Amino acid sequence: MPVFTPPRRLLFGPGPSQIPERVYQAMSQPIVGHLDPFFFDTVEEIRKDLRAVFGTRNSFVHMLSGTGSSGMEASIANFIEPGQKLAVFVGGYFAERMVEMGKRHGAHVVRFDKPWGETASAPEAAEFIERERPNVVAFVHAETSTGALQDPLSITGPAQAVGAITIADCVTSLGAIAINVDASGIDVAFGATQKGLSCPPGLSPITVSDRGIEVLKARKSPCSVWYLDLKLILDYYEGGHRYHHTAPITSFYALREGLAAVREEGVEARFTRHKQAHAVFVKRLEAIKLEMFIQDPAIRIPSINTVRVQEGVDDVKTRKRLINEFGIEIGGGFGPLAGKIFRIGLMGPFANEENATMVVGALAHCLRE
Prior knowledge:
The chain is of the alpha/beta class. Helix content is 42%, strand content 15%.
């Protein structure tokens, strides 16, 4: 019987990111049952470390058994009731996904659109929210499809003024960029394990403010998705540990170890390291006459760099060369950006000057005829 041997890639794409060996080792440890006291002790360790990464003191900090899209669906399904108004700020692929989920859960969806790669200004957000007066406002903090970083306060301030709950997609920012959930006025923030936290995909960390919990408790109809019902999940992880689902134990081990690495480095030091790696990347990129897609440095995501594909360059062929010749994976664009950008991640262990220099050098090689 042939041995199963996946190729070893250098993951410089938009996710998943490279996983440290210590995380793999944690996943190889013996599993316990999903109602074992050791498992719940592990959950409490994770919750404590996640608060520091999210930048929150919220009591509600938990992990959903599913990828980042489960966090998105849980946020919308739990905080929007049929017929309520959901306002979504749209400037990329994952905001479009929020729109789609809102429609499927019976929301009256209104959208504020910007061209892909642009973000909403405070005056624009205020005018839109004041006009629409929605129940819930949703936005993507770091849009993976474009590389654009949205300032949360531009949206959360106006949302609070009309009494709306805010939902932020922090899948790409969690663990790599400061979110500052409390200071940013975000009520519901969800993320994923496979990007800035450098763990395998499979869990979606989520946090909810006290104001959000009040809205959740006041809900008149049941959550439309049983598996992602946050009230039921609370009964499982807290209180009497009432069985809800079989949690993926090894994924929790991985997240615990990934967060331990973050804690040892220091959250702020980690964020600074990602910014520094990004600065080196941009400098090296410009030195070979390539251009960033996001022109305004203030709204660039440090951990996912979007690079314009030069005229006449076949992006698919270039990415294949990177894999074949260097074992490097990067991402391409999709939607209106298909064939127009490369998406290059500098996350976790790869967020440093050495790797930023190396990946730009490999890209330059593969762009040569």
